[in-house]
Amino acid sequence: MGNTTRTADAGEMANNNQRKREDTAAVGIRDGAGPATPDLSVIIVNFNALTHLRRCLASLPDAVAGLRWEVVVVDNASTERGVKSLPSEFPNVRVVPRSRNGGFAAGVNTGIRAARAPVLFVLNPDTVPRPHAATLLWWYLGQHPDIGVLGPRIVNPDGTLQLSCRRFPTIWSGLFNRYSLLTRLAPGNRHSASYLMTDWDHATIRDVDWLSGAAMMIPRAALDVSGPFDERYFFAIEDVDLCRRMHAAGRRVVYFPDAVVMHRIGGSSSTVPNRVLIARHRGMWRYYCTHMRGGPVSDVLTGAAITARCVVLLAVTNLRRVTRTTRGNATPERDG
User: Fold this and answer.
1) Which tens digit of pLDDT belongs to each residue from 220-233?
2) DSSP state, 178?
3) Measuring CA to CA, how many Å separate 222 from each of 108, 229, 294, 327?
4) Terminal Cα-to-Cα distance of the chain (whole angstroms)
5) Are the C-beta atoms of 3 and 129 separated by less than 8 Å?
6) Cβ atoms < 10 Å from Cβ of 231
7) How much is the CA Rg of the chain, to the nearest whole Å?
8) Which helix (H) or strand (E) holds 303?
């Protein structure tokens, strides 16, 4: 089925659902509110990303056109002011505060418990779904009840493709991931191409190993089979783990490029770069222990490699920060 046909079908569905909304308006029920169960619950975990979050929330009415919807914003103990007032700016939003930052997975699970819909759309606050993105995903999910996780095409702010689906990692994936030196020096090498799936144009619907947690739609019924997000992952790798458990439970993980979401990488995590780096590498070790563990020699080598990678990246990140700060302080002020 071509892109035009799917978009037209989703548009017709949106029109039909809008007529239903008009029918229910007479009894005081509006989209995203009232006693009726929504079609879709959007779950956003926020930590000091209010500017990005507002952009995301502003984009949602067009992204969910034709659906009855709600938004659950789980605030992971942000220090920014203004989160509690979001419902006054965005009527479909409920804010669920957490007393401490327990990580992304814990925040998503809090949102799932608070959500009312049978379908969940997990979004990062630094995303902006394009018009009808959520509607198209919701529509396709309804046609394929065997899907456990459905993901859109994710693009960078400049519109270029963001590699949001991958093959499952191996013990060598750290050498060939998106930011590794080998991938930068030889981006076309077969190991990087295989892991990052750059050997495919990302223009067609496809079953994949795993999808980025920046934007994924999940039927609640699938989580009943696979289990929720694993809260032992603080930040990163929890999406890989969830998709792996979906596969094990007999559910499909599908990339759906007709729906598009813009994602500003790092927009929601740039305030705590060291903590994020450490948490990411702890997640790598946990994933290895859960899904890939070998013998003692493999454990020692893998643990050493993950630790070394973390130390190097921490050093590079902090050196860059000091260099930027030094250059900024050395810049002379303009006269006048």
Assistant:
1) 999 999 999 999 99
2) T
3) 15, 12, 29, 51
4) 63
5) no
6) 16
7) 21
8) helix 296-330
Give the SS3 label for residue 112: helix
CA–CA distance, 203 with 274 (Å, rounded to integer): 35
Per mean pLDDT, which range of 38-42, 186-190, 196-200, 290-294 is the poorest?
Answer: 186-190
Rounded to whole angstroms, the Cα distance separating 164 from 154 reads 6
| Nearest by Cα to 257 from 294, 213, 217, 204 | 204
How many Cα atoms within 13 Å fall on the side-chain side of residue 46?
32
Which residues pair with residue 121 across a beta bridge? Answer: 42, 217
Phi and psi angles of residue 260, each rounded to the nearest 5 degrees, phi first: -125, 135
Cβ–Cβ under 8 Å, residues 164 and 156: no
E-strand stretches of the chain: 40-46, 69-76, 93-98, 119-123, 127-129, 147-155, 161-162, 165-166, 206-207, 210-211, 215-219, 252-263
Tokens of 192: 């990087």
- Here the tokens at position 22 are 């008009």
**Could you tell me if residue 236 is left (phi over 0), alpha (psi between -120 and 50 degrees) or otherwise beta?**
left
Task: Quick: pLDDT tens for 64-120.
Answer: 999 999 999 999 999 999 999 999 999 999 999 999 999 999 999 999 999 999 999
Q: In a 3-state reduction of DSSP, which class is residue 35?
A: coil
